[in-house]
Design goal:
The protein has helices at residues 3-18, 23-34, 43-76, 79-102, 108-130, 135-156, 159-180. With 181 residues, the protein is an all-alpha fold. Helix 6 runs antiparallel to helix 7. The longest helix has 34 residues, at 43-76.
């Protein structure tokens, strides 16, 4: 193989390792330039799979440790502080979801669902904390939350969030009917 092809193959392998091009494109280009002489998968990529698993394992371990530490800290704080942390986590989750939505990544759904759960817990906790024993405040906050879920689901075209908003309204209506009887 001449020097020009060797440089091109080296660049394609760099693109492949960095994820600059999709895997299928890189394989095609490598098979085109190597003309079947070599294996299109470099040995470095086979070795990097182990490194990626190690990073994923480390990330999972650190996540579990942080969750445990946060849970211990959470138990020691008063309820008002819980609301601030839940609110901050909800805002952070929404920001990350918006970031992944702009990039058209499939990770957006994980963060949207996580944010939906966090906003629900925050809303219910805030209504119970600020308006104790007030079913009106709880019902109003759930109605507003369901409306916001439906609006975001409609805007971002997430059917599950739209259905969650509609389902929240339906469940609220059923509870109100049961309470009337």
């Amino acid at each position: 193989m001449d020097e020009e092809k060797r440089i091109i193959v080296k660049e394609i392998r760099k693109w492949q390792e960095s994820g600059l091009l999709p895997e299928t494109y890189c394989r095609f280009l490598l098979s085109l330039y190597l003309e079947g002489d070599e294996d299109p998968l470099p040995e470095a990529q086979e070795k990097s799979g182990g490194r990626n698993k190690a990073w994923i394992g480390l990330g999972l371990f650190l996540s579990i440790v942080l969750i445990l530490l946060f849970t211990m800290l959470f138990a020691l704080l008063p309820v008002d502080s819980h609301l601030y942390f839940l609110g901050a986590a909800s805002v952070a989750g929404a920001a990350v979801a918006a970031f992944y939505y702009r990039r058209a990544s499939s990770f957006v759904h994980v963060y949207v669902i996580l944010t939906a759960f966090l906003t629900f817990f925050t809303t219910v906790t805030a209504a119970e904390q600020w308006f104790p024993d007030s079913r009106t405040a709880l019902g109003t906050s759930i109605a507003l939350l369901s409306t916001s879920w439906a609006a975001v689901g409609w805007t971002w075209r997430f059917q599950y969030l739209l259905l969650a908003g509609i389902g929240g309204w339906l469940m609220l209506g059923i509870f109100l009917l049961i309470e009337q009887v």
